[in-house]
Amino acid sequence: MISRAFAEWAPKPPPEIVTRLLVDGLGCAVAAARAGEGQPALTVARALGGPPEATVLPGPARVSAPAAAFVNGVLVHALGRDPVHGSGLVHPTAVVLPVAFAVGEEVSASGAEIVAAAGAGMELLCRLGAAVPPEFHRRGLHATSACGVFGAALTAARLYALDPETTRHALGIAGSQAGGRVERARGGTVEQAHPGFAAQSGVIAARLAEAGLTGPRDVLDGDFGLYRALLGEVPDAAAVTEGLGEVWEIEQVAVKPYAACRMVHAALDAAALVRRGLPAVPIVSVEVELHPVALPLVTGRAPSTPHEARHSLAWNVAAVLLDGKADPAHDIDVRRPDIRALAARVTAKPGPGDAARSVAEQPARVTLRLADGTRHEGFVPRPSGGPADPGLDGLVRAKAGLGRAADLLADLAALPSLRPVLRALEEEQG
Questions:
Q1: Do the beta carbons of residue 76 and residue 93 sit within 8 Å?
Q2: Which residues of 187-220 are buried (b: 16+ CB within 10 A; e: fewer)?
Q3: Residues 298-351: pLDDT tens digits?
């Protein structure tokens, strides 16, 4: 039922939402490339061979479309700065932008076709995750990977102009590649590659379907489909398809002002708020009130890698209180003694919540006790960077750090192809 609904859907997504997410995602990829991230993925992508169909961001290197989708998916997600859908806890841009760019460039799709395909893929990805929040993560699965292959396959199928039946097969084939185990306790950086895996798998699934391979027709809600196989239960199909084409989940995707898990952003805003005007007195203790669903997912105190640091509530709150920012990029010293010492004094407890909002858009409170006996408190009702943030467009442009390429991408629906954006990007990078 779900596969059929999306395979037959003729989407008309709001172009300003799609292009905002593409601009933010492109900025994330360029920042990661500048920081030297994604080198293992780039090495492998180049070695895979194949025709030079698509650009490795920010250019000018070109590889096959599946290889470009893989490495660009890694780049968008590598620094933990890419957009996130709060209800589904998925990163739609990290999966869909690489497919839209790679296949869009390969087939010389128009800007309008790329926007429509990207919007469809992002919407499917968000809806699949939002139907069961946050069950994938509770079971140690990266929802971006598990759900992402379907968004990637739908995006690629649209750009390859597959008919509904072939598109349904592409989704079925993609289901054989759905996964993404999360095990942060043992370290490793493979999670940053999950969107790349999903993007590449989606492109290959669409190509296989076009070549005649078939897949299960009900790969999402069948007896042994995505939900039952990975979660043990199947949500009502209406939870995924209701309001399709009228209600857009992509409108709820947040832009991340911090390079950290979205579920800790409200706490970081509260920490930044309480830090203003704080006297130069040592901090004795820090108490954070956060939504109870988020707490078990962000409790690491002593990260061993930057990737682990991005998912640690204590580490990021300590970084904001000490530095005024939390941006654990590739070169951060996770052994920094002052942050580790303060993080050890951070405790967390369940805080108030709003049942009408997702776990990633909940309020947070940070309370400090100083050595002079005073108590200081910061509270925010919701994190910055969300869909209701009036400064959202300014945040996107400031984060992206791009010039004409961002201007062109923001108007992608009116362009004859993606090429003007890629050309401008190459010129900006010198």
A1: yes
A2: eeeebbbbbbbbbbbbbbbbbbbbeeeebbebbb
A3: 877 778 888 788 889 999 999 999 988 766 444 567 889 999 999 999 999 999
User: Using CA of residue 349, residue 354, residue 359, residue 362, what is the dihedral sign?
Assistant: negative
Alpha-carbon torsion angle 275, 279, 285, 286, nearest 10 = -10
Domains of the chain: 2-257+391-429 (1.10.4100.10), 262-380 (3.30.1330.120)
Instruction: State the pairing for strand pair 283-290/253-254.
Output: unpaired
The torsion region of residue 56 among left (phi > 0), alpha (psi -120 to 50) and beta comes to beta
Q: Map 321-343 to HEC letters.
A: HHHCCCCCCCCCCCCCHHHHHHH
Percent of residues, the chain, with pLDDT higher than 70 = 97
Residue 133 vs residue 159, higher pLDDT: 159
Q: Is the model's pTM score more than 0.85?
A: yes
